[in-house]
Amino acid sequence: MLSIARRTAAGAALLLVMPVAVWVSGWTWQPEPGGWGLKMFYWITETVTEPWGVITHVLLFGWFLWCLRFRLKAAIVLFAILAGVILLGQSVKSYVKKSVQEPRPFVVWLEKNKQVPVDEFYALKRKQRGALVERQLADMDSLPLYLRKHWQFETGYAFPSGHTMFVASWALLAVGLLWPRRRTFTIVLLLAWATAVMGSRLVLGMHWPRDLIASTIVSWLLVTLATWLTQKLCGPLTPPPEEASDIRERAE
Fold first, then answer.
1. pLDDT in tens, 81-110
2. Is the predicted pLDDT of residue 222 greater than 60, yes or no?
3. Catalytic residues
4. H-helix segments, the chain
5. Greater model confidence, 194 or 124
């Protein structure tokens, strides 16, 4: 358990570098005119937004299963654990959002620039909030349509970040489950993807740095437990002798 906690903690520390640096720098979000950079961040965030997030989840599970090469029974247990950690993370996110009720950055911006009080905004039903955002931004051609549509869809509270919890969980699961198999490329790729999605949530005006930090910490706790359960219920994460020799050959 301790070795699992150490390596997942190392992964979490890497994910925390960006949001902590942004928080310490004092950076504040302001809406930017559309450009290729903003559009890139939008598509990055869409890899987690419904319905694409479901497809991402299925693809990642298939890849993890191929990398670990468990037998059928262990594979079913692995599926339950991976699905469980993602769903539990999203449940925690939903509960905390309702309890903390922190407004999103773009909602605070609407209050300052469009005289839409935050309290009145969140007193509305979700569909009414989306309609209000659409009306208030109808004359703002400087904001790209895809960003305005995204704001209309994402009118919930900010803290913590569900997108971050999703990507951080998968990236840390890669660290926890795939490091013994030396799937270094997959681990680096998922850590980079997670960091990019987290950055996109800041750039698009959806979250504050502290939202990302809290979500990463919660994900680390859940993933550490999930990795331990996988090892206990599915067998050792270290590769069998024949695969171990292949790993050594790749390293050489």
1. 888 888 888 888 888 888 888 999 999 988
2. yes
3. 163, 207
4. 2-25, 36-46, 52-68, 72-100, 105-114, 118-123, 126-136, 145-153, 162-173, 184-203, 209-234, 241-251
5. 194
Domain chopping of the chain, boundaries: 2-102+159-238, 103-156
Write down the H helix ranges in 105-208.
Answer: 105-114, 118-123, 126-136, 145-153, 162-173, 184-203
pLDDT digits (tens, 9 = 90+) for 107-145: 998 888 888 888 888 888 888 998 988 888 888 878 888
What kind of architecture, by CATH, is found in domain 2-102+159-238? Answer: Up-down Bundle (1.20)
Report pLDDT for 169: 92
pTM over 0.85: yes
Which residues touch 129 (CB under 8 Å, ≥6 apart)?
121, 122, 155
The CA dihedral of 159, 160, 161, 167, to the nearest 10 degrees, is 170
Structure tokens at 72: 């059928």
